[in-house]
């Protein structure tokens, strides 16, 4: 009998899109429109990272992923174009981290030791692309989205995210596929979902002893992150 992961991979390979939350401003409901400004980057960050274009949002929301054979495929429902399609590439010396650039940033590139701020959507391949966290849902007292801030090179952050961010520029948006070896190695590594039930579901899947004993470790911890490099500060 096919496993749930194999079923998810087969569905994705057939072109079934992963269901992920919309980027800020993509909802058309009245309530969402009233609060749209709250989902934008802070004023100090807007110049460094402009809002994604319609095509970029389409790429982000419509692409599908299959793993395990976990080969990555992307479906873009856009009119035919003479421009070359976006390419998936493996980052050198990253342990198998694969990326698809949705927008190339025009700002600075970070260096190890810099403090970087990113927005992200985090999803788990073993749960059919279940979204376990999003910084756009993390709000401050004024209702603005709060980015995830960390020091590049810190051992507290999963290495797959660091490898992806290290080769980005401010303003860039990148889809990142992180193999288990470069993902969560413990429940204390960041980013950690703030919701208790999301944390439980995430970690009980990745570190499930029965499934690991059955040889499923190569698929349980595969992560998909959509990352925007918002800002950086040299240290």
Mind sketching the topology for me?
Blueprint: H1 4-13, H2 30-34, H3 43-46, H4 54-62, E1 88-90, E2 98-103, E3 115-124, E4 130-134, E5 148-151, H5 159-166, E6 173-178, H6 196-206, H7 209-213, H8 217-220, E7 223-233
Antiparallel strand pairs: 1-2, 2-6, 3-4, 3-5, 3-7, 6-7
Question: How would you portray this structure in words?
Answer:
The protein is an alpha+beta fold and 235 residues long. The protein has a single domain (4-78, 85-233), classed as Chitinase A, domain 3 (Roll), CATH 3.10.50.40. 24% of the residues lie in helices and 19% in strands. The chain is built from eight helices and seven strands; from the N terminus they run ααααβββββαβαααβ. It has helices at residues 4-13, 30-34, 43-46, 54-62, 159-166, 196-206, 209-213, 217-220, and strands at 88-90, 98-103, 115-124, 130-134, 148-151, 173-178, 223-233. Strands 1, 2, 3, 4, 5, 6 and 7 form a seven-stranded antiparallel beta sheet that branches. The chain is globular.
- Uncertain spans: 1-80
And the CATH topology?
Answer: Chitinase A, domain 3
* Count of strand segments: 7
Q: What is the second-level CATH architecture?
A: Roll
Mean pLDDT over all positions? 76
Could you give a short account of the major beta sheet?
A: 7 strands, antiparallel
Element-level helix/strand string: HHHHEEEEEHEHHHE
Protein name: peptidylprolyl isomerase
Catalytic activity: [protein]-peptidylproline (omega=180) = [protein]-peptidylproline (omega=0)
Region (Disordered): 1-53
Biased composition (Low complexity): 1-16
């Amino acid at each position: 009998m096919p496993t749930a992961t194999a079923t998810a991979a087969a569905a994705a390979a057939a072109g079934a899109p992963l269901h992920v939350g919309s980027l800020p401003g993509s909802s058309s409901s009245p309530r969402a429109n009233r609060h749209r400004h709250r989902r934008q980057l802070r004023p100090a960050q807007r110049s460094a990272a402009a809002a994604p274009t319609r095509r970029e949002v389409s790429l982000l929301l419509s692409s599908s992923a299959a793993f395990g054979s976990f080969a990555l495929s992307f479906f873009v429902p856009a009119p035919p174009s003479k421009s070359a399609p976006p390419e998936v590439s493996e980052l050198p010396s990253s342990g198998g981290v694969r990326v698809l650039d949705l927008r190339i940033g025009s700002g600075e590139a970070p260096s190890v030791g810099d403090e970087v701020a990113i927005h992200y959507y985090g999803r788990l391949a073993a749960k059919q692309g279940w979204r376990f966290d999003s910084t756009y849902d993390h709000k401050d007292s004024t209702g603005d989205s709060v980015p995830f801030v960390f020091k590049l090179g810190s051992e507290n952050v999963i290495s797959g995210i660091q490898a992806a961010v290290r080769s980005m520029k401010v303003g860039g948006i990148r889809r990142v596929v992180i193999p288990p070896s470069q993902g969560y190695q413990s429940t204390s590594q960041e980013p950690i979902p703030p919701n208790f039930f999301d944390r439980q579901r995430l970690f009980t899947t990745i570190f499930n002893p029965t499934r690991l004993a059955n040889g499923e470790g190569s698929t349980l911890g595969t992560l998909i992150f959509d990352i925007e490099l918002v800002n950086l500060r040299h240290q």
